[in-house]
Design a protein that fits this description.
It is built from 7 helices and 11 strands. By secondary structure, it is an alpha+beta fold. It is globular and about 50 Å long. The mean pLDDT is 94.
Length: 228
């Protein structure tokens, strides 16, 4: 398995994991592709295993493709799997404590304010995200205005930034930037010395935010999804 694939899955864990046929299958009741996809453990793995596994569970067959897995990518394409959401892994050093503005309320559990941005659109998704994050150690941040939130998954000297959401009417006001810097500051206090995050390659505003905060690309991956 690709090292970054293992690290990302560790910090955004499925509810269940099963290994067979050269694949590592994740299941999280359909909540996010990242937690409901197959990771390559053997470059000779049979694509039919992915199709059968997820269809047996009523989920859309999905596989992540990372660098060095081009042969698997070709076979997925031959089986009708389409490329979805090419993504970047961005990372930055946390040797020094970031100077966060301190305008983010940070807790060690998801508060009602933290959950609301998900729950308004899809309560079941909100429950799923909370359950995923319940499998890791995390810090949950909500901007003092209530218009933005994010999460820092803490694992030793590493922190993964995830679940960043800003209310549409508050975008462009520095809300996300504040939450990001405050979460990085808290992570440093908890011992993190390296931070990373995943972002869809076409999300220009998010890329601008993260690059402005010192994050740089370290890897790329994409999903292959069977939609027919």
């Amino acid at each position: 398995m690709h090292a970054w694939a293992a690290r990302v899955s560790r910090d955004w864990p499925p509810f269940q994991v099963e290994r067979r046929g050269g694949w590592r299958f994740g299941v999280a009741d359909g909540v996010t592709k990242r937690a409901n996809s197959a990771l390559v453990e053997d470059l000779d793995a049979d694509v039919a295993e992915v199709t059968a596994f997820y269809r047996e569970r009523g989920l859309t067959p999905c596989a992540q493709v990372w660098p060095g897995q081009e042969s698997v990518d070709g076979r997925l394409a031959e089986h009708g799997y389409e490329t979805v959401e090419p993504s970047l892994v961005l990372s930055r050093d946390l040797g020094e404590r970031p100077d966060g503005p301190g305008s983010t309320r940070i807790t060690d559990h998801p508060t009602r304010e933290w959950v609301e941005p998900f729950a308004g659109a899809d309560p079941s998704r909100a429950e799923g995200v909370v359950r995923i994050l319940g499998g890791v150690t995390a810090a949950y941040g909500v901007h003092e205005s209530g218009d933005g939130r994010g999460c820092a998954v803490l694992n030793g000297d590493s922190v993964a930034i995830c679940a960043m959401v800003t209310a549409s009417e508050a975008r462009g006001r520095g809300v996300a930037k504040t939450v990001l810097w405050d979460l990085l500051a808290r992570a440093h206090e908890e011992g993190a010395r390296n931070a990373y995050l995943c972002v869809v390659a076409g999300n220009g505003p998010a890329l601008g935010l993260y690059r402005g905060a010192g994050f740089a690309e370290v890897c790329r991956y994409h999903n292959r999804v069977l939609t027919r």
